[in-house]
Design a protein that fits this description.
Helix content is about 10%, strand content about 35%. By secondary structure, it is mainly beta.
Length: about 280
């Protein structure tokens, strides 16, 4: 009898672990509360001349992100967003936001509409010699982004450039929850330029490969606090990285002067990385 109980427990534990590994990261969705306005953007049927209400949604993510102020919530309806115009300085982005901040009590929130999956793809971005990003936040504070997928951010500029799914730079108090980055020509998620108190929670990054540089920058997640003053901290919680051409999780924490910051990984998974190309 004891042997049978042990076998049953082992099977239950194994199945539970497999379910955790293969689950899509879904959780019970809690509608965020807004201290500001609530807006909507839709992949079809919207217009940037509309008021952004649920019945008259905006049409493009770039326009929608650029309207948000402290306390606002943007719901992104399901579907595929495939911009053919790029935004931002020195980098081609599907979405680029600079200097737009929430506050500690009134964050800017972007979320998938409950039960729907919005996908941002770089498949129609024009070819160029610039680095590319799917969603790029620069010098932005107090944002929470939930449930968005970024894919096919391509490197068309040779060995010195790459396509990053999510790029967070010089921004503090940013939270990405249940976001996905996949099939990009570079890192899935990248943190750079003195970011503090950034949280990546239940995010997945897979099948990213730097095809023009022997796979060398195809990390699932990469965080750099290089050259910082030592006070910067990034957290990865329940994140998963697999089938990326370089590391699942990579970090440049400090320089030769021991400056930099801290990175915390909690309950994260990394498997089958470094295998897409010989250099991984």
């Amino acid at each position: 009898m004891m042997k049978k109980l042990i076998i049953i427990f082992y099977i239950f534990l194994t199945v539970s672990c497999i379910e955790l590994l293969l689950s899509d990261g879904e959780s019970n969705f809690v509608m965020p509360s807004a201290s500001g306005a609530t807006y909507y953007v839709a992949a079809t049927g919207g217009s940037n001349s509309y008021d952004g209400s649920i019945g008259s949604p905006w049409a493009t993510l770039q326009y929608a992100f650029s309207q948000l102020t402290a306390g606002d919530i943007l719901y992104v309806r399901g579907g595929t967003y495939s911009p053919s115009t790029t935004y931002g300085n020195n980098r081609d982005n599907c979405v680029y936001v600079s200097g737009r901040n929430g506050t500690s009590s009134s964050r800017i929130t972007v979320s998938n509409y409950p039960g729907e999956t919005p996908v941002i793809t770089g498949a129609n971005l024009p070819e160029s010699n610039s680095n590319k990003s799917g969603i790029h936040l620069y010098n932005c504070d107090y944002w929470t982004i939930t449930g968005l997928v970024v894919e096919y951010i391509e490197d068309t500029g040779g060995t010195t450039n790459f396509g990053i799914g999510w790029y967070i730079a010089s921004s503090d108090y940013i939270t990405l929850d249940q976001c996905v980055s996949r099939y990009n020509d570079g890192p899935g998620f990248a943190v750079n330029g003195y970011c503090n108190e950034g949280y990546f929670i239940r995010c997945d990054s897979y099948w990213n490969a730097d095809n023009h540089d022997s796979g060398g920058f195809g990390d699932g997640f990469i965080a750099s606090h290089y050259g910082g003053d030592g006070g910067y901290h990034t957290y990865f919680q329940y994140c998963r990285a697999w089938n990326n051409s370089d590391d699942g999780f990579d970090a440049f924490i400090s320089d030769s002067g021991n400056n930099g910051g801290y990175i915390t990984w909690e309950h994260c998974w990394a498997f089958n990385n470094g295998k897409a190309t010989p250099s991984g």
